[in-house]
Here is the input.
Amino acid sequence: MATAKLNASVISEKVSKIRWVPEQYGAPQSFVTGNWDFASNNVRIWTYVQNELSDDEVEYTPKSTAKVNIAGDVTGIQFVNLDNFLVSSSSGKVNLLNINRDLAANNLVQKHAFEGLHTFPGNSVAPCTDISVCGNSVATVGEDGRLNIVNLSGMTVTKSFDEADHCSILCVNFINHKEILTGNRMGIIKIFDSLSDQKQPVTTLFTSCENDKNSNAVSAITHHPTQTHIVLSGCEEGSITVWDLRQPEYPASYLSAHDSSITEIAFHPTEPVKVYTSSEGGELFQWLSSSNQFTVDGIVHQPNTSETINPWLSGERTKNSISWTPLISGIHKSINSFSVCGSKMVCSSDNEAIYFIDNCI
Amino acid sequence: MDKEIAPTYYIPADGLCNKAGITAKWIHEDKLSVSAYKHITSSFKDGPTEFANTEAINIHHLQTNFIFTNPILRSLIAESNSVFLNVQQAAKQPNTKPDYIKFSRTYRSIVRACLKSIQDEMSSSVDVDKTEYANYTTIFYSVECIWHLCEILMIDPAPMNAVVPHLLDWIRFHFSSYEIRATDLLFADRDDFHESSGDFLKTVKGMIAQGQVEVARTLLRLHSKGDNSCFQVAGEILRLMPLFSVTGGLPLQKFKSKWQYWVTDTESKLATGCLSAEPELEEIIKLVVGNQEAWINLAKESRCWYEFLPGYLFYTEPGCKYFELGTYAVVWLRRWETAKGFRDSRTMTHLDRCVLKVMENDMYQVIHDIQLMCDNKWFVTHLTDLLCHCGQLQILGDQQKDVTAALRESLLFDFGASLMARDSLWLFGIDYLEHSSVEGVGAIELLLPKIPVASEKQAMKIIAVAKRKGLLEVEQEICRVQAVRSVVNNRLGNALEWAIRSHDSIFVTSIADKFLENYAKTSQIMCPDVIGNIGPKMFISPRLVFLVKYFDFHQYYRCGEFAQASELLINLLDSKITPEYFWPSLLADAIPLLEAKDQHFSSKETYVVLHHLEHQLIPLIEKKKQMVASGKDTSLNLMNDCRIEHVDEIVKLLRLSCARNLARALIHENTIV
Here is the structure.
């Protein structure tokens, strides 16, 4: 097991979202970032340049090759395919940007801007809070409690749930062509059916909370890449709630993770035994679930090969078979976002630095 | 003290200001508000001045230059903030003495990295303001130089306080040209030597002047005339030179006598003229024995006064302690000025003066001087904080009182406040305020809610920070503001959630009222998803409890679970938390249940309904009618429920249905089956 090397570089921007640019073959070479809280915010594309001067300690420095200005804070970045990605912002707009791989610099172009997706009853602009892509469709949610489904081939809004929520929606996850999950500031997750005509949620899930009297927003939500019925939600209080959408009445499991709001939660795209969470308190954890063995009353049981329960779903046993390791901790400021691809991980923090882990195990 | 020349700034074309004069007031630390002003004294005639109503009055805001808007320098803030927090954290650990040298070095490496980025930027891009960057280089070069000196003298004191070896390191670092040249020579091909140019011996001399005797000797041996007797003699002299070493060497007195013996020996050798064939070499040996004339000659070549001071001390006062350094420095400075032909200290730069003051350990003056650097007090804040933590700083104020802690706090406060005033640097600013005085925490409480919030995400971010610092009031205030915004945007459900977060019971009540009033008007419950999910949080306000319970009643009724609905309705009637305006609606809700085919209310329960009708609604209607009669109120409209035209109608219908249900219930209850 090689130790992970951590490269930190200060870029003088508070990055709210960071994503690897996917490659058809091989490891990712570049990533995109979007920042927040500046008079003029932007989306940048970066590449890591290996520093030749340092010999044994492999050092990388990020170099920005292009930027596009965005009105308002960037709230979400999602790739649609290899070259195109969507950026949502607090100005209520969603922009479609394109990366030109033939150019070395200035390789970012805005292709389309969706406006007026989110508005308050008085017709003033409402911030768009999150986006989630599924195939050729994208779900957008905003502070106006609206859920839009936009088709990217026609660049049109195909469906709009006007009153999806009377509270602001903070996060969205487009699981498959049918189901969309939204999480709001009250700790309620709603499942909408994108195919039916009904404007009401199909199911409503209530996240657990350590203290019922505290408010506990759903701050991040994700699903298992292959077993899409497994959904993890991260909360304001820092806990993770696990759901099995086949039995949505009760949470399948509940884990205390961080002691501050979870900013992002994600499965590793190709090795789903790994889950990553980042928190407002400046922590980045890796969760490892071993499905090979689990213990009951201290005795190790070899599971039946036919029994393939995902450890995230196995209730009480979960706590024994899921272990966590902190990848980053104690950096005083919030880790806002991370992106993992293969063995490479980038993450961004409010201390205006981006961290690169080349070899995250 | 020298008179400082204050920079002058002219108010741009403003006729009135030019004619009448100006007045100014500080808005905060680095913002000044200037406007036209005519000073009036008692001798003036009472009345408007001649300038009144002649021209428009402009108010100008002057702001000091804020260098950290530059992205390269901004990284300095971001990185140093993290080190600063680590220092505070380490200082709080009990029983362990933190490694302050490590922190100091980290700070310096940040500055050096920043300097390097500035250099790279200047050399790589064409469209940059070169003079601006040159300015930054000057500023941060000085910062690094002074910090380094403070580090070796105060944070990392040498054993026995012998400062010379450290000073030599410091000077080698900041005047590295000789050393670079020496390294080149050592690694160069012997054929490439150009000794004749004088460059070679100059480098040797430079090495000697920086106390690098070993390197100088090696260089001498490389010289093509190395076998020459002069070179042999010089090499021998240098070889025999006793070296002062703090650890494991001779006691100072013993060393001094040994040194003196060697000096006398060498001087006698020089007197024989054995080196006169090589005047350059002779000069070098004269330096080594501390010949005043030779050092004065060397001083003439130096670029600034302290360049050869450590070298001079190395050969004359190797055991010099920090408290003696000031005296030696002043002596050397006078000598240097005479050598250079300067009359007084006016030619000294700001950096030169600071270096002298550090050597004299006049920290009061040092702190004063470095505050004047154009780095928006980044340097003075961080250095003072670090020195305070290692207990190396003592500043005496009026009446010889120790004001060090107060000074640190006030510097942290000012620096934090100036960061808070800037775009997007608030996140760093609060850390400094937090670690300053009690006022700092107060300032956070005042400043945090004032950060302009454009989206809820940003609000949540500020709340998260406030929560971490335990600032409950800030959190509540931001929540209140967000709630009001949501009300303006007509998003009552969202507003209710924010209000609950704000823990402001009165505010929650007022929003819950909006829901109930709307229900009375339209029979529609707004935002059912929000109300249905409030859960135990409803206990913040009795009105909210009523709203949630009423919503539950409504749900039971809609689902046809009349038994539960009636029970809940009776509970609500008896709960004593029903708002006045809601009595008609609540009692009207009883009518269909009383009139239902199945009996839902027992006789006792019917009495409850009747009781509340007679004791709550009727007096209310009477009061209202009196008000209308006396002209204080205009109509009874407010008392109405949308389902029934007039409130009297409700009373009539309810009495009737109560009577009917009572009859039914009494018969039912008194029948023995």
